[in-house]
Amino acid sequence: MRVLAAMSGGVDSAVAAARAVDAGHDVVGVHLALSETPDALRSGSRGCCSREDADDARRAADVLDIPFYVWDFAAPFSAGVVDDFVAAYAAGRTPNPCVRCNERIKFAALLDKALALGFDAVCTGHYARLSNGVLRRAVDDGKDQSYVLAVLTPFQLAHALFPIGDTPKAQVRAEAAERGLRVADKPDSHDICFIPSGDTRAFLAERLGARPGPIVDAVSGEVIGDHAGVHGFTVGQRKGIGVDRPAADGRPRYVLGIEPVSATVTVGPAEALDVREIDTETPVWGCGTAPDGPVSCVVQVRAHGGLAPATAWPTARDGLHVELGEPLRGVAPGQSAAFYRPDPGGDVVLGSAVISAAR
To answer: What positions carry a catalytic annotation?
Structure first.
């Protein structure tokens, strides 16, 4: 096959490309330039997609003796990921930009261009497994990325390769060293790639400005503080709320809800975070079959953790109503819910949807 290897400049994508070469594919490497000012996207181990990363990807391609290109994807990344992220927070939602990047950049814009150029598949360094078009969790539970890939369609999965999903991260690094890849010991990037400072609140405040509103105690109904904008909060948050006195019982308060129209942030006790029902929208069934009745599954609401047995029902508005077998906390509108087959292994991805409400 003709394979386009997306090379971020990290160890995972470099080894994935190497394995694609070993498998006998005709491989071309490509690094995606996602910003008009790439030097601003990295600070130490935070962020990615900088000129440094492009250079690391190029050196890895040279070692593998494959053609290498840098493609400018700054415009679609800004519109489909960064602007979406800002708009979601402004609307009181909690987005996952990695999900959007996989959906709209790597497996929409990039795959579309690859297919138009005659490639058969896009290869990435994601930790996930594909078996006959079925997406599965990676062998390395600590690095598994099937949650952020659950948004992919059957067509996209049919044109994807995830060569390192069957290997623990430590072995991937060891293999990179054996191959002479200089990125073998390169630190993993952390946090959101386009916010290398790690200060999401400051990033959003710069773009959205001040939108003051009240902080309300859910137990007493009393206004106990004010804030500069709902974009500084997410459901489940405990620190940095900005309330200068404890609750009446002395226990900490958590963000329970965000109402963007009135700019109200509601806070209360930890137990009020328990969620037993979730409504979702825009489901995608990577398994290829949309259910016409209730589906038993395991739902995951965060990239790592946040799992519970559940039953999901299709709704009249092309969404899903999900009842949880046990409560989850920190479930917020805008997050993705990934659904897994409820067998003993629990590693087969059924699909995903965007959370619209939780209670």
So the answer is: 101, 193
